[in-house]
Amino acid sequence: MDNRDLKLELKAIDTSSLVDKVEMRLIEVFLYKELKPGDAIPKETELAQLMGVSRTVIRESLNRLKTMGLVESKKHRGTIIKSPDLSAILEKSLIPRILDNKTLMDVFEIRLALEVGMADFIFARKTKEDIEELEEIVDIEPDHSDDILFDVEHEMKFHGKLYSMTGNETLNDFQNLILPAFQHVYDIGLLKIKAKRKKHQSHKDLVALLKKGTPDEFREGMRRHLENHFVRILGATDGQGNKR
């Protein structure tokens, strides 16, 4: 057999561990059987026998699924399917000082997109009490010039209230996770492009739009409020996503 025939006979070796394979197989079965939160799965001993692996492998695979929030152990019930807590999962990995610069910038852009896009939800679910709370927040904010980026404490209070007004708990939890990354991008100097001075749309202006404006007007107001951030991001790239 010459070398060419030999190469044809050789196949890539599957280097994934038994734990990896069992983990993926369990997820496939959960989906195939259309299991829902609260449904019980077989015990470790049964799974080991059914899948032909040791209990140690099964236990490690289940531990991984528990870390992912897909299963949990319940007294007297064993292991059951769980609806994952997405915020808790992200919290374990969304650590600004550990994320690389590309991921930090991606997170930065996600927040901008969310805040411009959530106007309809806010308008549909706002209450008089919500507006009054926002007015109290802006009343104690210091005056900022156009070139001030933002104050984390006041940013969290004001924008955090807007997220809560959407009525979307997952979105509200998510903003608490990404705001530190938003600040960290500036702290480490990732965006060095100086934004052009433009008329600043303040928090107070946004409250006025919430009281008397429309979702479209508020959306545009939020876009202008975040204008300097967009300028810095887009000014730092060549339009093709590459850094200048």
Shape: elongated
Number of helices, counting only DSSP H or I runs of 4 residues or more: 13
H and E string:
HHHHEEHHHHHHHHH
Share of helical residues: 55-70%
Question: CA-to-CA gap between the ends?
Answer: 54 Å
- Using only CA atoms, what is the Rg? 25 Å
How confident overall, as mean pLDDT?
81
Strand order of the largest sheet: 1-2
**So what's the CATH class of the largest domain?**
Mainly Alpha
Proportion in β-strands: under 5%
Instruction: Indicate how many domains the architecture comprises.
Output: 2
Record field, number of beta strands: 2
Structural class: mainly alpha
Any low-confidence stretches, pLDDT <50, length ≥5? Answer: 145-149, 237-241
CATH architecture of the largest domain: Up-down Bundle
What can you tell me about this protein's structure?
The protein is mainly alpha-helical and 244 residues long. The protein has two domains: 3-81, Winged helix-like DNA-binding domain superfamily/Winged helix DNA-binding domain (Arc Repressor Mutant, subunit A); 88-235, Four Helix Bundle (Hemerythrin (Met), subunit A). 61% of the residues lie in helices and 3% in strands. The protein has helices at residues 3-9, 18-32, 44-51, 55-67, 86-93, 101-117, 119-125, 128-139, 152-165, 169-187, 203-212, 215-225, 227-235, and strands spanning 71-74, 78-81. Helix 2 packs across helix 4, helix 8 packs antiparallel against helix 11 and helix 11 packs antiparallel against helix 12 (215-225).
